[in-house]
């Protein structure tokens, strides 16, 4: 998983026939998520300019006790790519650039630049090195970087594949497209965004982000560490640019995606048809065709710091849906499923978060020091307040969620441990699963 702009899609099954929307139940659904520390953020559903549903829950600044509201501004992460792609298509219409223009016209020293086109970059077919996979990325992601700094990082990296060999998601494509927009317009990306998109719609919150000022109704983000929300830090927005640095509130994102896909306020119908034309089943041009049954939808998702975001537009229903989270301790796909089902008039089921209580006798079975021959890591397991607590050597301790007597998890870290073997009333072995890896740990004698 990439550290910033992990893209995930709405994976849902929807009926094309809609009944009256059950927004009262949807409102209760988000209340339940909030009560159980599963979600903080803002949700908006609208048709044209009519708000069908909006909800804000949680806080934008926990330390200062500032609540989120429907106008709170969030970092969008990779939803930003749709804005960048829109501006590129505007420039194509103006005759200032072409989809077949090569990267070499702007950055001739980048590997394979003469064989990479603007269109390929929009479709993630370039094979460029993704700067977010740089081994040193996490050491500088919170500090300001110049264009020259980031170009140097890109040039040092090895291309992932030859241009057009395949399509593979890459943030470098849209970082470089941001710089190309600046070069064509001869002004900062932020000014192009304001002139080309924000000023053309009633969506004033859309802007290139900076450090969040919570007093100005801008949200900080958080990760849930078992029993509390911890600040996630702030990526310096000089780094992602048009690949992930745009901010907005949920209503304005809906206004944008509706204008993009249902009007000619931003681009022409011909450009829109080109933009949503897919390569295979996944990649269009800065936008995705979302995998739904019976319903056509387009959109994007995003992830930056502790923010997780989704937006989708259903052209046949003329419905736009945006979910912006600054604190997530639940499956975002499940939240998207429920929100979309409610918007289509489908019956939704409220979740139950029943606590699994471990007895005092059970709690004595886990504690100990465990080591692994798979990875050079030692883990100490303890208990606190009826919870199992995990602490890796040299790291912070985390309270785990109890899934069963043998299985415990921490969604914020994508971590699960399963105790598998027991001897004399104590567990001796557990398997840790994280980021696709599986590692066996044994109790030290």
From TrEMBL:
<dbReference type="InterPro" id="IPR012338">
    <property type="entry name" value="Beta-lactam/transpept-like"/>
</dbReference>
<dbReference type="InterPro" id="IPR050491">
    <property type="entry name" value="AmpC-like"/>
</dbReference>
<dbReference type="InterPro" id="IPR001466">
    <property type="entry name" value="Beta-lactam-related"/>
</dbReference>
<keyword id="KW-0378">Hydrolase</keyword>
<protein>
    <submittedName>
        <fullName>Class A beta-lactamase-related serine hydrolase</fullName>
    </submittedName>
</protein>
<dbReference type="GO" id="GO:0016787">
    <property type="term" value="F:hydrolase activity"/>
</dbReference>
<dbReference type="Pfam" id="PF00144">
    <property type="entry name" value="Beta-lactamase"/>
</dbReference>
<feature type="domain" description="Beta-lactamase-related">
    <location>
        <begin position="42"/>
        <end position="338"/>
    </location>
</feature>
């Amino acid at each position: 998983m990439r550290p910033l702009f992990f893209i995930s899609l709405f994976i849902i099954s929807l009926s094309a026939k809609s009944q009256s929307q059950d927004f009262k139940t949807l409102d209760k659904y988000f209340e339940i998520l909030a009560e159980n520390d599963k979600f903080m953020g803002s949700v908006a559903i609208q048709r044209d300019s009519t708000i069908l549903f909006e909800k804000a829950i949680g806080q934008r600044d926990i330390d200062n006790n500032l609540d989120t509201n429907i106008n709170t501004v969030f970092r969008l992460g990779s939803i930003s790519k749709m804005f960048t792609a829109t501006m590129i298509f505007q420039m194509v219409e103006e005759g200032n650039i072409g989809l077949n223009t090569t990267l070499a016209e702007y950055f001739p020293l980048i590997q394979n630049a003469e064989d990479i086109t603007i269109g390929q970059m929009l479709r993630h077919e370039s094979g460029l090195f993704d700067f977010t996979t740089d081994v040193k990325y996490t050491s500088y992601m919170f500090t300001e970087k110049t264009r020259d700094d980031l170009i140097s990082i890109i040039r040092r990296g090895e291309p992932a594949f030859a241009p057009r060999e395949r399509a593979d998601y890459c943030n470098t494509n849209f970082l470089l497209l941001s710089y190309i927009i600046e070069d064509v317009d001869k002004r900062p990306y932020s000014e192009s965004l304001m002139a080309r998109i924000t000023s053309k719609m009633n969506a004033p919150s859309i802007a290139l982000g900076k450090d969040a000022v919570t007093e100005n109704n801008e949200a900080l983000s958080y990760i849930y560490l078992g029993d509390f929300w911890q600040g996630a830090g702030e990526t310096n927005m000089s780094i992602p640019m048009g690949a992930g640095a745009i901010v907005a509130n949920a209503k304005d994102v809906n206004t944008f995606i509706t204008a993009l896909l249902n009007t000619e306020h931003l681009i022409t119908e011909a450009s829109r048809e080109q933009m949503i034309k897919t390569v295979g089943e996944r990649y269009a041009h800065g936008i995705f065709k979302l995998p739904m049954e019976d319903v056509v939808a387009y959109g994007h998702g995003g992830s930056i710091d502790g923010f997780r975001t989704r937006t989708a537009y259903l052209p046949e229903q003329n419905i736009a849906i945006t979910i912006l989270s600054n604190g997530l301790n639940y499956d975002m796909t499940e939240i998207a499923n429920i929100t979309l089902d409610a918007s289509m008039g489908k019956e939704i089921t409220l979740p139950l978060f029943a606590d699994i209580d471990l007895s005092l006798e059970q709690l004595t079975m886990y504690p100990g020091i465990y080591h692994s021959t798979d990875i050079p890591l030692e883990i100490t397991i303890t208990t606190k307040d009826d919870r199992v607590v995990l602490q890796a050597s040299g790291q912070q301790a985390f309270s785990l969620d109890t899934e069963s007597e043998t299985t415990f998890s921490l969604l914020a870290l994508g971590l699960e441990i399963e105790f598998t073997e027991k001897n004399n009333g104590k567990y001796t072995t557990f398997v840790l699963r994280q980021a696709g890896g599986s590692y066996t740990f044994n109790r030290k004698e």
